Fold this protein.
Amino acid sequence: MRMVSTVSPPTSGDLEVLGMSSVREGREIRARLGVVPQDDNLDTELTVRQNLVMHARFFGVSRADAARKADELLDFAQLTERADARVDPLSGGMKRRLTIARSLVNDPELVLLDEPTTGLDPQARHLLWERLYRLKEAGVTLLLTTHYMDEAEQLSDRLVVMDGGKIVAEGSPAELIARHTSPEVLELRFAGDRPDFAAPALAALDLHTESLPDRVLIYADKGDEVLRVLRDRGVEPTGSFVRRSTLEDVFLALTGRRLAE
Amino acid sequence: MTAVADARPPGDLAGVIQFCGVQFARFRAAGFSALLAGVANPLFFLLAIGMGLGSQIDGADLPTDDYLSFVGAGVVAAFAFTQGAGLSMWPTMAAVKWEGTYDAALTTPLSVRALATGHIAWTGIRAGIMAALYVVALIPFGVIASPLAVLAVPAAALSAMTASAPLSAYSVTRENDASFSVIMRVGVTPLFLFSGAFFPVDQLPDSIEWLTWLVPLWHGVELCRGLITDTIGLGDALVHVAAQVVVVAAGTAAAVRTFGARLTS
C-alpha cells in the first residue's frame, strides 16, 4: 500500500499508478490519490474540520474551496455536529469516518484503504460500508485490503487473494466461489468420538469433506440432500446446518488453515 | 461532490509554507498558555538575574550599559535555542511515531524535503514569535537601545534553528524519547548557561575560550545582544549570521535524509 501511494519506492520492478511512474511522478500521482491508512493518524491538536481543511491545503486547494469541501465531507461522514470538536474524544467509528473523509479532500480518482473497518463495532462497520458503496457509485475506484471476507464480498467487484506476498487467486467474489468451492457447505457436529463412526459414510459420499477438531465440513451443491442421505445411512450428528459458501471458504481453501505468523 | 483539486500539485516552497500554516493552526489551538510560558520564562530571568543579581554587579567591563541590559538582551537567543531544541525532540517523535501525522502529510503532494525543511522552519517561526513578544516586554526596562532590535527576532529564529535542524535530524532516527531529556540536561542546559548569555565568555579560561567560536549559540547570543543594545558592527554581525547559517544548512540537509529514511522506507 505504501508503494502504491508512492510514499515508499518499489522494492523491485516498475510500478505505475494512474499511468504514471511511482518513482518519477510521485507528486503528480499523490495529487490524485486518497489514502486511508490502517491506523488513524489524525492530528489530535486540531478540530475535526481543521483536519480536513489543513489536509486539503497540502493539495494546493484554496482556503475557500477547502472550507467548502470540508463542509461537504463532514456531511458525507455524518460528522457535521462534531465539526468544531477535537479529534481525541471521538469514537473509533467517527475517527475512521473522518480519516476516510480526509482522504477525499482532493476528489481522488483512486482511494487506497488499508483494513478500513478493523476494530469497529457492527453498526460502525455497516455505516462505513454504506459510505464506501456510495463513493463507488460516484465513480471513485477503491483499492482496499481486508482480512474480513464479508467486507471483501460487500465492497469489491474484483478481488485478489494474497498468501505470503503472492497472488493465489483473482476474480469477482462470485467467480471465486464458483471456481474454488461448492455452492453450499454442510456443517456437522458430533458428540465425542462419533466422527470416526461416521467416517465410512462420509467417505462414501465422494464429496470434498474437511474434518476439523470441532466439526466436519462437507462441500456440496445441495447441503440438505446430503444431510438426508447421511441420515438414511444411520449418521446422526448432534448438530447440523447448511449455509451458502462464502469467500471465507475460498480463502481457507486457497491459503490453508494453518496460522501464518 | 464539487471538484476542488488543483491541476498542478504544489511545489516544495508552497509545501513548506503550507506546512508552517498547519503548525501555526496547531499553535493557535494550543491557546495562550504556550505563549505565556514562552514569554514569562525569560522575563523571570530578566528580573531575578538581570535586576536581582545585577544589583550586586559592577558592570563597568561589560559591552552594554549595565548588567540588566547584558542579560536581558543575552537571553533572547538562549531561550530561542532552548525552545528550538525542545520543539525538535518530543514533537518530532509524536509526529513520526506516536501520532503518525507526518505519514498522513506525506500521502499528499508534500515531499519529504518540504516536510523536513518546514519542520525546522516552523521551530524558527515559533521561537521568533516568542522572541518578538519578549523584545516588546524589554521596552519598559530600557534595554532596547536601537530600532535594530527588530532584527533580533529573525536572529532568535536563526538561533532556534541551529538547535532544531541537527536535533530534528537526530530525533527522527530514535524509537523512543529516552535520550531526549539527557540531551536537554547535558547538552542544551550547559550551552544555555555557558554561551555568554549570563557572563562575557572572555571570563572563561583562555584554554577553552576559543571553543565558544564553535558554539552556534554563542554566535546567536552575541548577535541578538548586539542588535538589541546597539553594540555590534556589521562585519561581526555577518560573521555570526554566517556561522549559524552553516549549522542550519548542514542540519537541514541531514534532516532531509533522516526524515526520508524514517518515513519513506
